[in-house]
């Protein structure tokens, strides 16, 4: 009876493309971009492209689309994971893969504890797993087994985030839910104590981040959603503090009564180091219209409000960022757009990287501005590595926009069984036959 | 998606919900049975619909009475009916996935209210998937009793994750049940009984009631006798296996 509602989106794999992702080392020693199965890293200290070394037993890099990349807070680790069900943990010193963890299901999100001892990853069935990295050196390269930590019942987890004080692990899912779990002393035994649920979004939650400042070191949670809002939360109580309608404020909503057919989904967001700004990427689900750029929200901690500050548009072709990160030390906002598996071309998947400067303070006189390619740190050398080439075509951007749209609607649409398949599934269920 | 709502759900000044937002999911799979409204959060549960005598209007404050008992997979509602008169001042709700069964329980309660004026005002039922939406209905520590009577067994190993008692779901139940609150389970399937007991025993936030405590609790006697499933098992002379556990504070 409850069968259909339990099965999830292994939706048509062939049509599925992965949006490009970006991650920035906390002190900007390197920048990583994932496009499809390819993980590209540029070392800004040495000023050169890095070639990753992976001699774990699986013997190769990722074999399918990467869905999550992230640096640890202390910058020593980079984690990458995705559809090939592998979680790869890289040393940012040697750029070797120090551990490969096999997941039972495709991986959708990753997080690293602030002390760098634990890697958490979420799978397509809503289970969050944990791996302990604190092992004698000899065991480092061995394939590790993960222990289950917590679960969102059969819902795809879209984002995982540790609270600034490391006491809580926050997980968001496509069933509108944000769960705040106490991160236990012995996490390998599971995380059983739920601190709160942050409930208020009316569509899938796509991204999470914390804003914190000296006055508010515990910070506040910000979340972006398919309901075209960014919301501000107190995680200790789960209280909704403010809601910012980004679609509306950015002048995205049309006023001709077509609202019902269109919607703008928040696809990614990130926060600046002093917690005053939130950068938001929005994907509009209407043909012929895309927001070319990002929306900046201002966060007032004492007033607990979130408001639209400005839209930063990015000239030079259609640029809809698929992923955003602000470097905590340089305060540069790094953006990427791109997509994997473009069947149309045999070219290596290409991407476009852009950088915004001037996000220093919300009340600063300086306007944020987009760096020209030659102003980007390491310039052409970096772009050539991370983008795949220096040239890029408009086609890529349109495809990237399409890819984000697909990725977003995959979060909305559950697996559709044909009537036949359903009948078959019913007949082959024997737990029903035994009872009743 | 919600139909064109632009207002924030909560009033800034009062912190209370502006409207009763019940969402209807336009995008859910029509083949699946998830076509029921889900309250955005526990504050959005409209008590006036469920308990009109206790809540003549849909306005509710933080100090208002809250639902304290939940019967998960309540079936035809026999337990709720028995509990209603045993705890006339306690609000209780049944959660049931099957549409027709839920409708039946609704009708049953309405009929009882009519034939017994002033009684059965504290019971209601809602159609929902309890495995997904418990946190949408109950706040942290809101419940004092939760019931899982004769749940579906899901025998196959790979279907164990569909069981309504599982290690991960217990984390959610521990969240909605107050410290000192009690979870009652019973089944006629020995394997499932062992499973439910093991899950509860292994959970750091639950401890078993002692035999004396079980004896003293009037509710325990209802587990095997009050529900339709229980009566069926009893008629056939079947054995039952119960596990009754108290929510405790996690040790630090
Ligand atoms: C075997 S019956 C027992 C009913 C009742 N407790 C009794 O003892 O008579 C199990 C009930 O749980 C319901 N159920 C199963 N999964 C559920 C879910 N996820 N949420 C709510 N109800 C569910 C079924 O529809 C069914 O009515």
TrEMBL record, chain A:
Record function comment: Required for the formation of N(7)-methylguanine at position 46 (m7G46) in tRNA. In the complex, it is required to stabilize and induce conformational changes of the catalytic subunit.
Gene Ontology biological process: tRNA (guanine-N7)-methylation
Name of the protein described by the UniProt record: tRNA (guanine-N(7)-)-methyltransferase non-catalytic subunit
Location(s), subcellular: Nucleus
Transmembrane segments: none
Oligomeric and partner information: Forms a heterodimer with the catalytic subunit.
Positions of WD repeats: 59-100, 198-243
Organism: Parasponia andersonii (Sponia andersonii)
GO CC annotations, alphabetized: cytosol; nucleus; tRNA methyltransferase complex
Family the UniProt entry places it in: Belongs to the WD repeat TRM82 family.
Oxidoreductase in keyword set: no
InterPro entries: Trm82, WD40/YVTN_repeat-like_dom_sf, WD40_repeat_CS, WD40_repeat_dom_sf, WD40_rpt
Record's keyword annotation contains Ligase: no
The protein's annotated pathway: tRNA modification; N(7)-methylguanine-tRNA biosynthesis
Keywords: Nucleus, Repeat, tRNA processing, WD repeat
From TrEMBL, chain B:
PROSITE patterns with a match to the protein in the record: SAM_MT_TRMB
PANTHER family xrefs: 3-DEOXY-D-MANNO-OCTULOSONIC-ACID TRANSFERASE/TRNA GUANINE-N 7 - -METHYLTRANSFERASE, TRNA (GUANINE-N(7)-)-METHYLTRANSFERASE
Keywords, sorted A to Z: Methyltransferase, Nucleus, RNA-binding, S-adenosyl-L-methionine, Transferase, tRNA processing, tRNA-binding
Primary residence: nucleus
Protein name: tRNA (guanine-N(7)-)-methyltransferase
One Pfam family matching this protein: Methyltransf_4
The UniProt record lists the keyword Methyltransferase: yes
Subcellular localization(s) per the UniProt record: Nucleus
Top EC group: transferase
Gene Ontology MF term list: tRNA (guanine(46)-N7)-methyltransferase activity; tRNA binding
Matching NCBIfam families: tRNA (guanosine(46)-N7)-methyltransferase TrmB
Nucleotide-binding recorded as keyword: no
Family: Belongs to the class I-like SAM-binding methyltransferase superfamily. TrmB family.
Lineage: Eukaryota, Viridiplantae, Streptophyta, Embryophyta, Tracheophyta
Function: Catalyzes the formation of N(7)-methylguanine at position 46 (m7G46) in tRNA.
Residues the entry annotates as binding S-adenosyl-L-methionine: 73, 96-97, 129-130, 149, 227-229
GO CC term, one of those recorded: nucleus
Natural source organism: Parasponia andersonii (Sponia andersonii)
Catalytic activity: guanosine(46) in tRNA + S-adenosyl-L-methionine = N(7)-methylguanosine(46) in tRNA + S-adenosyl-L-homocysteine
Active site: 152
EC numbers for this chain: 2.1.1.33
Coiled coil: none
Pathway field: tRNA modification; N(7)-methylguanine-tRNA biosynthesis
């Amino acid at each position: 009876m409850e069968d259909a509602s339990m099965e999830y989106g292994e939706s048509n794999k062939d049509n599925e493309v992965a949006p490009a992702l970006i991650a920035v080392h906390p002190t900007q020693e390197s920048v990583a971009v994932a496009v499809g199965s390819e993980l590209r890293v540029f070392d800004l200290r040495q000023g050169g492209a890095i070639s990753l070394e992976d001699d774990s037993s699986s013997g190769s890099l990722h074999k399918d689309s990467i869905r999550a990349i992230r640096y640890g807070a202390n910058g020593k680790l980079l984690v990458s994971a995705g559809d090939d069900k592998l979680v790869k943990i890289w040393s940012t010193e040697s750029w070797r893969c120090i551990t490969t963890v096999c997941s039972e299901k495709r991986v959708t999100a990753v997080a690293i504890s602030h002390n760098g001892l634990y890697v958490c990853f979420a799978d397509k069935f809503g289970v969050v797993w944990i791996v302990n990295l604190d092992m004698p050196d000899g065991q480092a390269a061995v394939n590790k087994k993960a222990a289950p930590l917590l679960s969102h019942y059969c819902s795809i987890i879209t984002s995982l985030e540790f609270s600034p004080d490391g006491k809580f692990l926050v997980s968001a899912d496509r069933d509108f839910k944000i769960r705040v779990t106490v991160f236990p002393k012995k996490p390998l035994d599971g995380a059983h104590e739920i601190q709160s649920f942050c409930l208020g979004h009316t569509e899938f939650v796509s991204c999470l981040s914390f804003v914190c400042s000296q006055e508010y070191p515990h910070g506040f949670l910000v979340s972006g959603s398919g309901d075209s809002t960014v919301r501000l939360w107190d995680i200790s109580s789960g209280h909704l503090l403010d809601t910012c309608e980004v679609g509306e404020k950015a002048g995205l909503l049309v006023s001709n009564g077509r609202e019902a057919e269109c919607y703008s989904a928040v696809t990614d967001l990130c926060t600046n180091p002093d917690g005053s700004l939130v950068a938001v990427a929005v994907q509009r689900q209407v043909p012929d219209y895309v927001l070319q750029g990002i929306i900046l929200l201002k966060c007032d901690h004492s007033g607990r409000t979130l408001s639209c500050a400005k839209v930063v548009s990015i000239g030079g072709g259609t640029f809809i960022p698929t992923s955003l990160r602000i470097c905590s030390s340089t305060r540069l906002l790094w953006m990427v757009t791109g997509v994997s598996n473009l069947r149309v071309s045999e070219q290596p998947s290409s991407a476009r990287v852009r950088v915004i400067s001037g996000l220093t303070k919300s009340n600063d006189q300086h306007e944020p501005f987009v760096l020209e390619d030659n102003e980007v740190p390491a310039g052409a050398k970096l772009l050539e590595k991370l983008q795949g080439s220096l040239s890029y075509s408009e086609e890529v951007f349109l495809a990237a926009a399409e890819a984000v749209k697909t990725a977003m609607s995959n979060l909305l649409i559950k697996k559709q069984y044909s009537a036949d398949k359903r009948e078959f599934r019913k007949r082959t269920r024997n737990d029903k036959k035994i009872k009743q | 998606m919600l139909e064109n709502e632009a207002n924030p759900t909560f009033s800034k000044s009062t912190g209370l919900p502006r409207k009763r937002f019940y969402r209807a999911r336009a995008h859910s799979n029509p083949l699946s049975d998830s076509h029921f409204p889900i309250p955005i959060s526990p504050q959005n549960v409209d008590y006036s619909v469920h308990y009109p005598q206790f809540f003549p209007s849909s306005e509710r404050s933080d100090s208002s009475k809250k639902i304290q008992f939940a019967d998960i997979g309540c079936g035809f509602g026999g337990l709720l009916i028995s509990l209603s008169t045993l705890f006339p001042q306690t609000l209780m709700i049944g959660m049931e996935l099957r549409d027709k069964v839920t409708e039946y329980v609704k009708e049953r309660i309405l009929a009882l209210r009519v034939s017994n004026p002033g009684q059965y005002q504290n019971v209601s039922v809602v159609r929902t998937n309890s495995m997904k939406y418990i946190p949408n209905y109950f706040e942290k520590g809101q419940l004092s009793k939760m019931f899982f009577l004769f749940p579906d067994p899901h025998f196959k190993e790979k279907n164990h994750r569909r069981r309504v008692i599982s290690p991960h779901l217990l984390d959610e139940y521990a969240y909605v049940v107050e410290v000192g609150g009690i979870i009652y389970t019973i089944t006629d399937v020995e394997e499932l009984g062992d499973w439910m007991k093991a899950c509860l025993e292994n959970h750091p936030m639950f401890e078993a009631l002692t035999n004396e405590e079980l004896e003293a609790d009037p509710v325990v006697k209802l587990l095997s006798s009050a529900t339709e499933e229980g009566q069926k098992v009893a008629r056939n002379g079947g054995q039952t296996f119960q596990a009754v556990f108290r929510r405790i504070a996690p040790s630090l």
